TrEMBL record:
Membrane spanning residue stretches: 21-46, 58-78, 85-103, 115-137, 172-191, 218-238, 250-275, 281-300
InterPro entries from the UniProt entry: Gate_dom
Residue span, Nucleoside transporter/FeoB GTPase Gate domain: 16-100, 175-264
Source species of the chain: Fictibacillus phosphorivorans
Top-level taxonomic group: Bacteria
Keywords of the record: Membrane, Transmembrane, Transmembrane helix
Pfam families given in the database record: Gate
Name used for this protein in its record: Nucleoside transporter/FeoB GTPase Gate domain-containing protein
Length: 322
């Protein structure tokens, strides 16, 4: 009973913390989607698409995916019948790295990660991957064949309906968050009380060590990998606080997770686009591993250099004192 109480309270607290970010962002972005603002951004970005090997209209799914969510981006792709397989694959890789920017970046920032780091990694990876695929892949010139078309939603008429739709989406977002986070927190509390979390951390320790992190980061990583940044943030916040995850390990975990999170769901949703999803998954996982190891290497190198500088300074101070 105590486990249930603790888990529910932790879940409600997390839902409140994340809800304060998700509700207003969802509301504002939904309202903006019924104004000319997104069209202006698309028109502004269209000329730059050629630098990453995409036609101008490819800006539509990129803006929709980054401003709204992955499904909106995929919906945008499905409305374009002139794209090649290579175009769609590039868009899929870009959207895998960079989607739902406002909510997921806001949630990550609430855990204590600087916003500019999240945006730099996500947008940087999206642009770099697109440039490299366009540079290295000569194939995929045939026209893309989509698996199925989503049912179009009836557009609300008038600002009254638009506002109601925006409020409904924002409210449903919070409800969905609560329905996922509260049971997860109860399960986490149960696993902790049974001592299973320690066993899991020990099992994950070799992988954490390879990525330059301590084993107490394992729950944070597992949550992000399986259920994503937005919904996994609740578990991450709890795990980071209770397991005493260091600031460095938290940054490394999030650098990995912004590159590769919700690996099953975020890969399977691209199947209707008729592209090979296994290479998409491999690109995400390999990028996340390499990037995290490289950042951890330079971070550790910088820490050692700073430590040696402090020791030399202390030695010099003692010498002059004597």
């Amino acid at each position: 009973m105590e486990t249930l109480k603790k888990g529910t309270l932790a879940g409600l607290k997390t839902t409140w913390t994340l809800g304060k970010i998700i509700f207003p962002v969802t509301l504002i972005i939904t309202l903006l989607s019924h104004t000319p603002v997104l069209d202006w951004i698309i028109a502004f970005l269209s000329p730059a698409m050629k630098w990453i090997g995409l036609p101008g209209e490819a800006a539509i799914p990129l803006v929709l995916g980054n401003f709204l969510n992955l499904y909106a981006g995929i919906g945008g792709i499905l409305t374009l019948d002139s794209l090649t397989v290579q175009d769609v694959f590039i868009l899929a890789v870009m959207l895998s790295f960079s989607h739902n920017l406002f909510i997921e970046s806001g949630v990550a920032a609430s855990v204590g990660i600087k916003l500019w780091v999240i945006l730099l990694v996500r947008i940087g990876l999206a642009l770099f991957s697109a440039f490299m695929i366009n540079l290295l892949w000569d194939g995929g010139t045939e026209k893309a064949q989509y698996g199925f078309m989503p049912k179009p939603e009836a557009a609300p008429s008038g600002w009254g309906e638009i506002t109601l739709t925006a409020l409904e989406k924002a409210s449903l977002g919070i409800l969905q968050l609560a329905l996922i986070v509260i049971p997860l927190m109860i399960i986490m509390q149960f696993m902790k009380d049974k001592g299973w979390l320690n066993k899991f951390s020990n099992w994950m320790a070799p992988a954490m060590k390879l990525l330059g992190m301590k084993e107490n980061t394992s729950m944070t990583m597992a949550a992000g990998l399986t259920i994503g940044l937005a919904y996994g943030a609740g578990v991450m916040m709890q795990a980071a606080k209770e397991d005493g995850v260091s600031k460095k390990d938290l940054y490394l975990a999030f650098i990995f997770l912004v590159s590769c999170h919700a690996v099953v769901e975020d890969t399977l949703v691209f199947i209707p686009l008729g592209i090979p999803v296994l290479p998409l998954l491999i690109i995400r996982v390999v990028t996340a591993i390499v990037l995290t190891i490289v950042v951890a290497y330079f971070w550790n190198k910088m820490e050692r250099k700073n430590r040696l500088t402090r020791e030399e300074f202390q030695h010099e101070t003692r010498h002059h004192t004597i």
